[in-house]
Amino acid sequence: MSSSSDFAIEIQKVQDSKISDVDFDNITFGNTFTDYMLVCDFKNGEWQKPIIKPYEPFLIDPSAKVFHYGQAIFEGMKAYKDEHDEVWLFRPDENFHRFNKSAVRMAMPEVPEVVFMEGLKTIIDLERNWVKSGLGNTLYIRPFMIAIGSGVIAQPSTQYRFMIILSPAKSYYSGAVKVVIADHYSRAANGGIGAAKAAGNYSAQFYPTKLANDKGFQQIIWTDDATHTKLEEAGTMNVFFRINDTLYTAPTSERILDGVTRKSIIALAKREGIDVQERSVLVDEIVAAAQNSTLKEIFGAGTAAVVSPIAAFSYQEIEYVLPVIEDSFASQLKDKLTKIQYKLAEDTFGWTVKI
Amino acid sequence: MSSSSDFAIEIQKVQDSKISDVDFDNITFGNTFTDYMLVCDFKNGEWQKPIIKPYEPFLIDPSAKVFHYGQAIFEGMKAYKDEHDEVWLFRPDENFHRFNKSAVRMAMPEVPEVVFMEGLKTIIDLERNWVKSGLGNTLYIRPFMIAIGSGVIAQPSTQYRFMIILSPAKSYYSGAVKVVIADHYSRAANGGIGAAKAAGNYSAQFYPTKLANDKGFQQIIWTDDATHTKLEEAGTMNVFFRINDTLYTAPTSERILDGVTRKSIIALAKREGIDVQERSVLVDEIVAAAQNSTLKEIFGAGTAAVVSPIAAFSYQEIEYVLPVIEDSFASQLKDKLTKIQYKLAEDTFGWTVKI
């Protein structure tokens, strides 16, 4: 298959929509799915025709390589509805390119741009009733790819399945988020897969996160695994630190995910005249800044969480509480970002794409 | 469920065995499966009744957490047939304990000993015709567990599936194995999941291994990710280095799998009077030993590969060829190990368990 027309999407209609069963005011993140899913298989060395069909379980062999060797990658995106009932994506090209970077690192085939982008547009257009208007209401979009080829030998699969599934969502976190700074466990190795949105990166964090949860903390800020002196990311969010009026965040690396929200926040902050520095942020300097009260804010940035202010952090069993400040960078930047996403402010960056 | 009797295994018989379709003399590793699989689900906080049923694909939700967050672990084991047609396992207790250590690290529920051990014995007993006699013939056993709970939120699943599948096998590698010593990519982080037999550890190696394959090397010997100066393991095998008449291997750590073949080789070598040292092995000392001809052997040790002699290694684009020696430690130790496994020599260690 080589031309776009080979990838024309077949649509198999559902009998009845499930939408009337959904209580959109009381929805938990990631548990409700829309009527359709997009499926596109890779076999015999090429991508097959994409199909949009009713969302449902599928059959897979017990020896499928995704179960044994973890060949699986994903993206997280959102669609937003504006006041005129138009539906918008936010920087989908960034997710597409990152998806294929993840694919390369995990020895999986790259998905053709037409399959990813036209697939997104077609399925979201079909499901536009599931995108509710109003700030905070979104349709969470989960493109992912898994190795479906069979065989218990540790080698890349020859068969893959690319899918897009959709889940209506409200905001991800509620309440004050307290974090632990990692001093033993780690998320990523030098020369590892930390920069890829690979499934295995997430389950690796569950146990240390559970230990943090048991002590009353919701998330971990990971540090470099060799020295545990450099602050990196929070696993589902990149992290920003405000000391006085300067905003610091770790540079992306092979250990850190190149977050779309991260780079958007940096661009917005710079436009607002905020001094943003992308450089290694040391645990010691953040602890010192907390002690001398120059540490004003810490916040996470990610698609699911958007911008998530951190209320306190713990490092080596000592808890540091952050001040509650008016008109924080976090709230200013979140406001500017969401207004662009919902088309309530002019998109001077050209980030939004209409469905 | 709390007593063993609650885990009594139900068996659903196949109509006809597939065994007569299998050409046991021309079998590739990991692609042929026996008639049955064992399935035991975890839900509502407890393990359900195990079932042995015909091997077949099963239905799973597109949002299953194994696809998105990589909660998946496995073990690799083998069954052997002796000259009296009895079938034996090799140190299955080691695999059981390691499986549950992996489960803890990946925030998955531990599998009850009765489910794992009686499950193994029952399914292998049922499939004993698939275990062929003769050195090199084995039944490869793959116990594994995956997160089958649905939902695209990065949290541990509440539902899991433990399975055992079986694949008749001959020896894993053929021909001389040449390896690359890693100087950029890495397998595991300090504080990471390298010591767990987690699915994500394997796919993370596929891309660097493909780069090595493209240069004519089959495997990579991983080094520590922080300095790339310490030799660790080969991803599907632990690694031994013989300098003069001393055998060196890296100590197990949170970055290195505690291999059953590794510890058996160490015990056998010690019994033979070989000086075995478990300590950090530096790249520099191996390169120096290769240059001054004191490096006599390198070999891998793992369940699938058993003992796999390394013919040459490459480090920073320079290739070092190992001498071909008579009566190598690798061949001596492989011979002693396999004779115990096939009941051709007395098992003074008590490693073998009859089905």
From TrEMBL, chains A, B:
Keywords: Amino-acid biosynthesis, Aminotransferase, Branched-chain amino acid biosynthesis, Pyridoxal phosphate, Transferase. Its EC number is 2.6.1.42. One of its GO terms (biological process) is branched-chain amino acid biosynthetic process. Its cofactor is pyridoxal 5'-phosphate. GO terms for molecular function: L-isoleucine-2-oxoglutarate transaminase activity; L-leucine-2-oxoglutarate transaminase activity; L-valine-2-oxoglutarate transaminase activity. InterPro entries: Aminotrans_IV, Aminotrans_IV_CS, Aminotransferase-like, B_amino_transII, BCAT-like_C, BCAT-like_N. This is Branched-chain-amino-acid aminotransferase. It comes from Flavobacterium aciduliphilum. The keyword Transferase applies. It comes from the Bacteria. It is an enzyme of class 2 (transferase). It catalyses: L-isoleucine + 2-oxoglutarate = (S)-3-methyl-2-oxopentanoate + L-glutamate; L-leucine + 2-oxoglutarate = 4-methyl-2-oxopentanoate + L-glutamate; L-valine + 2-oxoglutarate = 3-methyl-2-oxobutanoate + L-glutamate. Belongs to the class-IV pyridoxal-phosphate-dependent aminotransferase family. The modification N6-(pyridoxal phosphate)lysine is found at residue 197.
